[in-house]
């Protein structure tokens, strides 16, 4: 069972955020958290917080399953362009140059590799409930 977390209107350019997102794509959750913790780029702290949110969303969906047994990994991470603030900067001879302040939207999907363990835990809990 997968869980999704989204981060909208992050005030950094999508290109800079994709550089950090590419580091953790397809990684296990623990490895990705370690990478993000020690990555000096600005987007790493935001992605770390988003990943922790996705993990807690997964736990909320799968209350019966244990996080350690699930073997979570990053199934998909997508960085799309967000809204663009357009500003003017003075230029020589009375002209003006346009400045585009870009933002991005990040979508993170976390899934369990070990689906058998998750479903086995759920069936075990259900069988225990029926016995009682």
Characterization of this structure:
The chain is of the alpha+beta class and 132 residues long. It has a single domain, classed as Ribosomal Protein L22, Chain A. It contains five helices and five strands; from the N terminus they run βααααββββα. The protein has helices at residues 14-24, 29-38, 42-61, 67-70, 115-131; strands at 3-10, 72-81, 85-90, 96-101, 104-112. A three-stranded antiparallel beta sheet has the order 1-5-2. A two-stranded antiparallel sheet has the order 3-4. A hairpin with a 5-residue loop joins strand 3 and strand 4 (96-101). Helix 2 runs antiparallel to helix 3. The longest helix has 20 residues, at 42-61. The model has no long low-confidence stretch (mean pLDDT 90).
């Amino acid at each position: 069972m997968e869980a999704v977390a989204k981060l909208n209107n992050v005030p950094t350019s999508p290109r800079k955020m994709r550089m950090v997102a590419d580091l953790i794509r397809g990684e296990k959750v623990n490895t990705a958290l370690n990478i993000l913790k020690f990555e000096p780029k600005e987007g790493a702290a935001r992605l770390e917080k988003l990943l922790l949110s996705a993990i807690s969303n997964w736990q909320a969906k799968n209350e019966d399953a244990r996080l350690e047994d699930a073997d979570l990994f990053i199934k998909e991470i997508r960085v799309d362009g967000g809204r663009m603030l357009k500003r003017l900067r003075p230029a020589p001879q009375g002209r003006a140059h346009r400045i585009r302040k870009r933002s991005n939207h990040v979508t993170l999907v976390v899934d369990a590799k070990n689906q058998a363990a998750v479903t086995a835990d759920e069936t075990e809990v259900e069988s225990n409930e029926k016995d009682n």
